[in-house]
Amino acid sequence: MNKDSAGIGRPEPALHQGIPQRSRSLAADRRFVAGGSRRRPQAHPPAQDWRQSMKAAIRDSATLLEHLGLAGQVPLCRDEAFPTFVPPEFLARIRPGDPDDPLLRQVLAVADEEQTVAGFAADPVGDLEATACQGLLQKYDGRALMITTAACGIHCRYCFRREFPYGDMSGVGTHWNDAIDFLSQRKDIDEVLLSGGDPLTLTDDVLGGLLDRLNQIEHVRRIRLHSRMPIVIPSRVTPELVSMLRESRATSWMVVHCNHASEIDGDVEASIAALVDGGIPVLNQAVLLRGVNDDVATLETLCRRMIDLRVQPYYLHQLDRVRGAAHFEVSPDRGQAIVKELRKRLPGYAVPTYVQEQCGAASKTPIADT
Q: Which among 61, 91, 6, 3 is positioned nearest to 340, based on CA atoms?
């Protein structure tokens, strides 16, 4: 095992209905197609339509292994209660023939998921206890989170909502009315997070209709979208989407989710450039995952790629202890050592805050390095 200066080496492998169409103009911003200077990636939309990518996703792990030349080489989960879902763009970035590829590890339903491990549960972060009304969670002062949809552009095996009861909580159209009414009455809430699922799996008409309703609530000052789509299906970032977010009265923020620099190709660079050039602040959050990014060099490379793309590294999350994901867990001690070394290697603004979400806490809890 090769070790770096911190003595930390690489680990052993171990379409919606219900919201009326908007009257807002969605004319494309010229800056979207113009790109940037100073060696920035060209901000152009990839040719593939994002909805076709969703339809073309691989939906079982055996087929995924066949595509990668790994049929029969990895023990798989016998019952995929949380189904496989891998779009073709993400599949193209996985190294064929490598069962330990860090991108493959994030999406492959392996037999380890069947282990029963004490402390791992269906709702590890207390989402259900934080339910304010149908489709709305409130854990922290001044902010609330809307469950906009159950759909995602990819199914990450460590997802803390892999057992979330979406049938009871999410929906569009009239199912959002309770959440909108709640937010309208709570003048102490000035920021709304759109989550799911993934809000960017909503069509522009549906998402735009929701933004219009939120923009009518005067005390809502910021709308923060948490999405993996700019990374896994970058064609979702269209000129129309960028214009919609830029024209929002409430300031739009985008939080993307990228765990490894190999997730970033030219189309991802273009999707990020489109957002940033369009005036949308972009943050990245990652999860510390065993066998994916639990070494200094990998996270350093990821953080450097992010700041080169004008994306702020935001959070590095300790794994949420959801049932079926124990094989991804990295000890907090190891995480602290990694972050301590990152602080030596990177400028301060490039080091994400290492945090853990704890049920009932007033905020994300920082895990301080010592």
A: 6
